[in-house]
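#help-structures
NK: newbie question, is this the right format to request a structure? protein is RNase H type-1 domain-containing protein
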Amino acid sequence: MSQQHPAGAPCCKKEDEKMEKRLAYINEHASEWNAEPRDSIPMELIGDSATGVNWINGLWATSNIIYKHILGDIQNRLEHISVLYGMRPPSWGHNMFKWIYREGNERADRLTWLARTKNSYVTFHTSLIEHASKTKLDGLRGFFDGGRSVEGCAAGWCIDLCVHGTWQLVAEEAVSLDASASVMFCEMIAAQRLCMAVEHILGSIFHPSS
């Protein structure tokens, strides 16, 4: 049975202080988006799993064969995206995948919650993507999250495009996964599906169908 704590209780104050510190960290470490050089496009993909992000960035290693397979696919897609479309980190010396506290990843977290409650969906705002194909793309950012609870297992992601200095949501997905999936599997699937969506959107922008 959950225990209710009165407002002002020590545990509540500690949680508030913890959140304040995390939000301060997020603000202090917000990425600087460098527009130079003009022949490349800044991109950042954000998740709140330090393990998952460090695996993708090659800073940590895993011996799990399934995770290795997914990581290999993600890394290959990143290389393809970088070479074919000139995508790069938002500022030099950083990676395209970035870790953030979960307080800064609320949009993707909400999508996993929706999928765990059997509200799976995927949306691509084709009119906004088409508009981006006719002008200069200033940047791309994505958020991903995976998780499990008593309701189920799920992954979620969303993508924003920056055109003329304005960020707009162009795609998002909430997808249910097998009930036996681990948290890390959910995180890895979320990152993989985010990369697949990025490839699709960039392909639509730079190689629009006639």
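mod (FA): yep, format's fine, and the tokens are attached above. The longest helix spans residues 183-206.
NK: thank you!
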